[in-house]
Amino acid sequence: MKFVIVTGLSGAGKSEAMKALEDIGFYCVDNLPITLISKFTELCYQSKSTIEKIALGIDIRGRGFFKYLNDSLEMLKKFGYEYEILFLDCDDSVLVKRYKMTRRNHPLSSNTDIVEGIKKEREFLHELKQKANNIINTSNMKPRDLKEEINRIYLEGDKKNNLTISVMSFGFKHGIPLDADLVFDVRFLPNPYYVEELREKTGEEEVVRTYVMNSPISIKFFEKLSDMIDFLIPQYVEEGKNHLVIAVGCTGGRHRSVTIANLLYDYLKEKNYRVLKRHRDHTLR
User: Fold this and answer.
1) Residue 64 in marked binding region
2) Is 11 annotated among the ligand-binding residues?
3) 97 is in an annotated binding site
4) First and final C-alpha spacing in the chain
5) Among 28, 159, 198, 202, who pairs with 192 as Cys (CB 3.0-4.6 Å)?
6) What kind and span of H or E run contains 87?
7) How far apart are CA 27 and CA 186, in angstroms?
8) Where are the domains of the chain?
């Protein structure tokens, strides 16, 4: 039996993920009280029904029971019930926009603002995120993109073991991403910021990409970067890592880092890795 626990930050897309899982044959149960997880799992595994795939959604709305979560998960292990954790993550700035757009309150922001509620929830879920088998950051995803990623993980199977690679661009002046496993500094590459007609553009545009890569240093760097990535990924797979975050940074996160992150994403895609891409700071000034 395939048993998946779906959780993550409020507003990150858990409901959409549950819909996507239901579409591919999962029997989905949302917001089951934490204290009933072990009993529910026992019934599922011992049942003579034809259900082979189950998704259980839990979130901060059940925070009164969350203190029992570790005990429930340990009990599942004790009785040999196998499960996976799918964690939906999202950048704080995107979560704030989503809450403002829907005009809904954050579950933990009744007496504080949305940002403070998100901060509390992220701290609260930190340990659970560390246990996740798969982490999907939905910051730059539409519902269709999330559905495609769910399908890649749970329909296509173990083509490259179970490793999901996230390639991220960022600006050092906005801070290094806290969840990065590998950080590459590309501030030594040709900088389009100093070319007036390129300054307001981003690495998503071909003219910027051409400018950055029209240098022997840039070409040589990407060759060495791709060679290193080719060496490292099998080591992470062998270690059993499920999610690898590769962060590429330049000063502002708009030109050079976006260019290299796009190239690396395309490179990994060609090798049939399960890979995601997001540009954290390319719209910031």
Assistant:
1) no
2) yes
3) no
4) 49
5) 198
6) strand 84-89
7) 46
8) 2-157, 164-279
User: Is 113 part of any known ligand binding site?
Assistant: no
Tell me if 23 is assigned to a ligand binding site: no
**15 annotated to bind ligand:** yes
3-class SS letters over 211-254? HHHCCHHHHHHHHHHHHHHHHHHHHHHHHCCCEEEEEEEECCCC
Is there a binding annotation on residue 13? yes
- Assigned CATH class of 2-157: alpha beta
For 142-160, the pLDDT digits (tens) are 888 898 889 888 876 544 4
Residue 201 annotated as lining a ligand binding site: no
pLDDT, block means (10 residues), the chain with 285 residues = 90 92 90 81 72 85 65 82 90 86 73 79 86 89 88 67 85 91 96 94 95 97 97 88 90 96 95 88 78
pTM of the model: 0.63
What is the torsion angle, in degrees rounded to the nearest 10, for the CA atoms of residue 141, residue 98, residue 14 and residue 25? -60
The answer on whether 57 is annotated among ligand-binding residues is: no
10 known ligand binder: yes
61 assigned ligand-binding residue: yes
- Position 240 scores a pLDDT of 75
User: What is the per-residue pLDDT for 110?
Assistant: 64
Residue 28 parent element (H or E)? strand 27-30
CA–CA distance, 116 with 124 (Å, rounded to integer) = 12
Residue type, 129: K
Residue 9 counted as an annotated binding residue: yes
The runs of H, that is alpha helices, within 47-161 are: 63-66, 69-78, 92-102, 114-130, 143-154
148-154 LR contacts (CB < 8 Å, sep 24+): 149/276, 150/17, 150/20, 150/21, 150/24, 151/20, 151/24, 152/274, 153/86, 153/274, 154/2, 154/4, 154/21, 154/24, 154/26, 154/53
β-bridge partners, 137: 89
